[in-house]
Automatic annotation (TrEMBL):
Top EC category: hydrolase
Family listed: Belongs to the metallo-dependent hydrolases superfamily. CpsB/CapC family.
UniProt-listed Pfam families: CpsB_CapC (PF19567)
EC number of the protein: 3.1.3.48
Protein name stated in the entry: protein-tyrosine-phosphatase
GO molecular function: manganese ion binding; protein tyrosine phosphatase activity
Gene3D superfamilies reported in the protein's UniProt record: Metal-dependent hydrolases (3.20.20.140)
Amino acid sequence: MDTLVDMHCHLYAGLDDGPANDEEALAMCRIAWEEGTRHVAAVAHQNEQWEDVTPERIREAAGRLTKQLADEGIDLEIFPSAEVMLCPDLDDLFDKGQLLTIADAGKYLLIEMPHNLFIDPRPVGRVLIPSGVSMILAHAERYPELLRERGLIESLVEDGFLIQVNAGSITRPSSPDVERGVKSWLKRGIVHFLGSDGHSPRQRAPRMAEAHQRIVRLVGHRMAERICRENGLAVLHGRMLNVPPPEPAPTGWLRRLFSSS
């Protein structure tokens, strides 16, 4: 079995809308390990709804979970991280040390947008990215604007943004638009990371294996290795990640063939 890196999973008991208790958190970790995952960007939400979720609380939760995993003999490496809500003053919050980067390494910030609202992240990106902080857009396929507006997601990647998609959007896409869009992004090199976006051991379990297998069938083992392991390891260890520009979008009959295969 290929080992995987989950770049987006809520594993901290009682900290946000993830597992309710230690038993659920450990059950999620067992599922992740059985799926082939060995390294996890374990996140908690940082937004107005979870104002008490500070970097220090996430660090403490990660340390506690790491000890529990060792006690249980579960060989899963946890990296303290956050899923940060995009807002106009995000760069100020970052400068004040109020936001946690992926793996607490100071190099990559996982961002999401408010529900049912697309906010152009490029103004904030123009401040943070040149300063050495790369921005990863969580579950990018959730935003209809990125699926429908030609050239928008390509523009984000060209400006230095990195793209994470959820495993469930590959195995059980929520709409035909999501299915077509994610397939096209994968084929064109727009997807850089896979995440489970796990929240519980039941409805939103941290399952990655089936999505990985489908990516292999779609784009080949080498590209799947980059998306599901290599890129994530680079980020988790604070290394610079250079990604090639996206392939051009096909047009006409090629576009139909590209999205259907």
